[in-house]
Amino acid sequence: MQDCLQRARKTINEVDAQMAELFEKRMEAVRQVLAYKKEHNLPILDAAREQAVIEKGCARIQDPVLKPYYEELLVKQMELSRRYQKTLLDEAWEKSREI
After folding, report:
1. CA of 43: how far to CAs of 3, 19, 48, in Å?
2. What is the pLDDT averaged over residues 44-53?
């Protein structure tokens, strides 16, 4: 039984490491999206796009029991992405005031 627990924990650790790498990759893409939005005077929030991403993501989940949990993860991820974009905008604004 202990061996089974250790294998499960090892898998969790491996997945967490992959998720950390993918998170950084995703947030870099979020930064690039913000640059485009700034250049084209677009708002940070694109509710239709976020809903489409959530629906597409949830469609990838095969286990119906897990779908609401994955949806919650995606919603939180979108919130973090918007917060990161706002932070980047605020920092750029502060730097422009220093000049």
Report:
1. 51, 28, 12
2. 97
